[in-house]
């Protein structure tokens, strides 16, 4: 059992002859009691502080364990999130690359088809234009040939008609009747010249009308030939 200051204070000793001085012993005991009380108080304070420190240490240890556990959980969660993000990123990148390749392939195929169709269409147009040009060239050559034939025939016709008009027979026919008479028939000649002049004037007008009709016929024939050539 621990000794208390009260035990020291209440402690009594038997008195004997030639023993210690009672007052000195009491004074010394008082000093011991005070020191002991001080030591007990300090011990009590120390125990209290130690207990408080131990409680704090326990709290901090528990807090440390909780923090460590939280750190472990947080690290594990972060690792999982990182792995998930990396996997998702890989999936997104892979999908994007696949979509991009598909889009590029489709665009290339469409472009090739468009170019191929354009080339085919251009070739068809070129072939049609070439065939049309050749056809027009043949038609132009035919038209020129027919025009040359028409020009040659018309020239021959006009030249033949002109030769007929300029022939001696026509000159002889157109010669006045009075030119066949000599000077002995002066009166008759004058009378005939007067009458023949009137007839010739009328005849020339009539021939001019006839020639106009003939030229009209030639013009109509030329138009018919031209229409035939054009067709």
Attribute tags:
87% helix; coiled coil; DivIVA_domain; Cell division protein DivIVA; cell division; cell cycle
Q: State the end-to-end CA separation.
A: 152 Å
What class, by secondary structure content?
mainly alpha
Order of helices and strands: HHHH
Supply the number of helical segments: 4
Count of distinct strands:
0
Strand content: under 5%
Radius of gyration: 76 Å
Biggest sheet features: none
Q: Any low-confidence stretches, pLDDT <50, length ≥5?
A: 208-219, 225-231
User: What helical percentage do the residues reach?
Assistant: over 70%
How would you describe the shape?
A: rod-shaped
Mean pLDDT: 77
Describe the secondary structure blueprint for this structure.
Layout: H1 5-10, H2 22-165, H3 168-174, H4 186-230
Helix pairs in contact: 2-4
Notes on the structure:
- The protein contains four helices and no strands.
- It starts with a helix and ends with a helix.
- It has a domain at 178-231.
- Mean pLDDT is 77; it is low at 208-219 and 225-231.
- It is mostly helical and 231 residues long.
- The protein has helices spanning 5-10, 22-165, 168-174, 186-230.
- Helix 2 (22-165) runs antiparallel to helix 4 (186-230).
Short recap of the structure:
The protein is an all-alpha fold.
């Amino acid at each position: 059992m621990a000794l208390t200051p009260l035990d020291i204070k209440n402690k009594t000793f038997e008195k004997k002859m030639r023993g210690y001085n009672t007052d000195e012993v009491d004074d010394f005991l008082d000093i011991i009691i005070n020191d002991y009380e001080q030591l007990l108080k300090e011990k009590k304070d120390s125990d209290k502080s130690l207990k408080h420190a131990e409680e704090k240490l326990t709290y901090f240890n528990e807090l440390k364990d909780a923090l460590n556990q939280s750190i472990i959980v947080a690290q594990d969660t972060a690792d999982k999130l990182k792995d998930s993000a990396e996997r998702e990123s890989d999936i997104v990148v892979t999908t994007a690359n696949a979509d991009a390749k598909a889009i590029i392939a489709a665009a290339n195929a469409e472009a090739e088809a468009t170019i191929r169709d354009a080339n085919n269409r251009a070739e068809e147009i070129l072939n049609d234009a070439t065939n049309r040009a050749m056809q027009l060239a043949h038609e132009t050559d035919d038209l020129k040939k027919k025009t040359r034939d028409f020009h040659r025939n018309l020239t021959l016709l006009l030249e033949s008609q002109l030769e007929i008009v300029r022939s001696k027979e026509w000159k002889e026919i157109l010669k006045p009747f009075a030119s066949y008479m000599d000077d002995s028939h002066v009166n008759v000649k004058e009378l005939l010249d007067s009458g023949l002049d009137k007839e010739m004037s009328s005849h020339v007008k009539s021939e001019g009308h006839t020639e106009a009709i003939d030229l009209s016929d030639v013009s109509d024939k030329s138009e018919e030939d031209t229409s035939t050539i054009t067709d």
